[in-house]
Amino acid sequence: MIDRRRPPDGGVRIEADVAVIGAGAAGLYVALCAARLGARVALISATSLAETASYWAQGGLAAALAAEDSPDQHLRDTLHAGRGLVRPSAARVLCDEAPGQVRKLEALGVRFDGDRSGRLALGLEGGHSIRRVVHAGGSATGRRMMRHLSALAAEHPGIEVIENARASGLGVADGRCATVVCEDGRGIAARGIVICTGGAAALWARTTNPPGALGIGLLLAHRAGAQLADLEFVQFHPTAVIGVPGREGFCVTEAVRGEGAVLLDSSGERFVDELAPRDEVASAIYARLQETGARSVALDMRAIDPARFPNVVAALSDAGLDPGSETIPVAPAAHYVMGGIVTDLHGRSTVPGLYAVGEAACTGLHGANRLASNSLSECFVFGERAAVAALDEPVAASRPADQPAAPIPTATHETRAAMWRHAGLVRDRAGLDALAGDPHPVARLIAECALARHESRGAHVRSEYPGPDPRLDATHTVLDASARPTVQRWS
Question: What is the share, in percent, of the chain residues with pLDDT greater than 90?
Answer without folding.
Answer: 83
